[in-house]
Amino acid sequence: MVQRLAALLLLLPSLALADTAGTVTVSESNDSDNQISIAECNGSTADTLSFSWTVSTSSTIPSGNSFEFRVSDTSGCPLSSTTTTANTASITTIASNGSASGTYSGQAVSSLLHHSGLTFSCSVPATVFVCALITDGAGATASAVGTIALDAAIPPAPVVNTPSPGDNALNVSWTNGTTVADGGTVGTAASYEVFVAPHGAAFPANPSVTVTSPSTSVRVGGLTNGALYDVVVYALSTGGNVSAASNIVSGTPIQVDDFWKSYKDAGGKETGGCSHGSAGAIALVLAPLLLLARKRRRS
Amino acid sequence: MKRLLAAVAVLSLATGAQAEESPRTGSVELRLSGYHPNIDQEFGGLATPYRDSFGGRRGWMGRIGVSKELYHGVGTVEGGLSAGYWEMYGHGHLADGSVAADSTALKVVPLSLMLTYRFDWVAEQVGVPLAPYVRVSLDRMQWWVTKGSGDSTQSGATHGYSFTGGMALLLDFFDPSLAREMDRDTGINHTYLFVDFTKSHIDDFGSKTSWDLSDTSTAIAGGLLFVF
Predict the structure, then answer these.
(1) What is the predicted ipTM?
(2) What is the pLDDT along chain A (299 residues), one digit of tens a residue?
(3) Do A265 and B49 touch (CB under 8 A)?
(4) Are A256 and B93 inside 8 Å of each other by CB?
(5) What is the model's pTM?
(6) Are residues B104 and A258, on separate chains, in Cβ contact within 8 Å?
(7) Which of A271, A279, A283 sits opposite B209 (nearest CB)?
(8) B105 to chain A: which residues are within 8 Å by CB?
(9) How far A279 CA sits from the closest chain B CA (Å)?
(10) Fewest 10 Å CB contacts: which of A118, B71, B124, B133?
């Protein structure tokens, strides 16, 4: 009886280790937000995923064994059985050569998520589970697991207020809209892109300013006083889903007097710089020297 | 009379721990005060560009000072330096005088050379935890003005002097054993909580072509002083 108990106690740690999974690290070629946007999901924006992992095992990995790489909508990437319902696809096998670590890359997001056996939809938010499994030397399944989010939420188009003129700048502010014009789930804006163009001209490909939520205002500089500009704002979700365009507003930068200009216009005589108060400057410089001389006399 | 003698005896015993103090070299102080520059006084009430841009608020000025002990006997004389920071944000103005959305700011870094006499003999030897002090400083206010983009449009420096008088409360009095423990662990001999009043004259010693960066009123400051 005692021997059986001892054997059970020795077996328990190995069972626990077999249940402990390593981690699969996921990286994207298009960005590093660890989120699959709608455009990345449907392939309109190219995004290739790369995976690296180290499985957790207390045993050695036989050199002839291979990793099985799976993608699933269920944690642990279980295969469907009579007791388990999961949408899991076995994507590929990779030789381990006796190593507990492995990598897999070159799989485009759009093809990976639409692999046979998977039911991901680009318009439904989901968590994509990725797993690497291998049979270790003790005959147990060692695994590593990871996730990447499928962000199918589109923020509503912002509503932009009339810009306040600034000095060679426009102060732009907006509120979050409430509707999604182009389908998908209503999402929360994680950032905003503000585009500014001369009135009537096409907006540039790149935003003038990117603002991180929850801030909903920005000062767009580098403009010309007296010229009319158009402004449009887009909201972006965490994964990079872009909202519909906001309303387009227009504004004209104008000269603004800062405090110094106001002071001089009022007849102020200060000229700036350090040209005045030379006596004070000399005293400030001499005082430490006097203190130093006193210290030296003491020593 | 007997009671007075007994009290003195008790106080003497209480201050017997002085011999256990670590060597003293100086002090560090952290202070916080309000500040409102007197720039508009130049216009004699005919214009108020500072108030128009920033309003009448007093901004918070924080400072840190380090002093070297020059004398310790009947009180303490210290010479030191301090530096701090103050800023005030407001709005620029359009040509028609209306307030613009663009901001403007005045930022100041005050630098001071300080000579301080602190009458701490009573606090340290008799046990009454109060130490009045006076200070004279040579000051330099390094300043710059920024516009809405955050770029500096003008900068400069204004010099002057100031006088300070205040009272420091010896916190060691409330927990002497903790104070001694702190001295053993960190070398901080005494800790004071202080309040003082400063009258400043920061106008390049009366120059007609300099800002008056003196405080519009006698400034009240408070903070902590660590003697080490």
Answers:
(1) 0.85
(2) 455 555 544 444 444 444 478 999 999 998 888 889 999 998 999 999 999 999 988 888 888 899 999 999 998 898 877 777 788 988 999 999 999 999 998 788 888 888 888 889 988 889 999 999 999 888 888 999 999 999 988 889 999 999 999 999 999 999 988 766 555 566 788 999 999 999 999 999 999 999 999 999 999 999 999 999 999 999 999 999 999 999 999 999 999 999 999 999 999 999 888 755 455 555 555 555 555 555 555 55
(3) yes
(4) yes
(5) 0.72
(6) yes
(7) A271
(8) 259
(9) 8
(10) B71
- Identify whether the C-beta of residue A57 lies closer than 8 Å to the C-beta of residue A96: no
* Alpha-carbon radius of gyration of chain B: 22
Condensed to tens digits (0 to 9), the pLDDT of residues B142-201 reads 999 999 888 888 999 999 999 999 999 999 999 999 999 999 999 999 999 999 999 999
Q: Please, what sign has the CA dihedral across residues A112, A116, A121, A122?
A: positive
Q: How far apart are CA A67 and CA A133, in angstroms?
A: 5
Contact status of A164 with chain B (Cβ, < 8 Å): yes
State whether residue A226 sits within 8 Å of chain B by CB: no
- The whole-angstrom separation of Cα A88 and Cα A129 is 9
Distance of alpha carbon A27 from alpha carbon A53, whole angstroms: 12
Burial classification of residue B101, based on how many CB atoms lie within 10 Å of its CB (0-12 exposed, 13-18 middle, 19 or more buried)? buried
Does A200 touch chain B if contact means CB atoms closer than 8 Å?
Answer: no
Q: Are A217 and B148 in contact (CB under 8 A)?
A: no
A273, burial (CB in 10 Å: exposed 0-12, middle 13-18, buried 19+): exposed
Q: B225 near B27, Cβ under 8 Å?
A: yes
* Cβ-Cβ contacts under 8 Å, A260 against chain B: 104, 145, 153-154
* Residues B56 and A216 sit within 8 Å (Cβ to Cβ): no
Partners of B68 on chain A (C-beta within 8 Å) are: 291
Contacts of B159 in chain A (CB under 8 A): 276-277, 279-281, 283-284
Query: In Å, how far is B38's CA from the nearest CA of chain A?
Result: 13
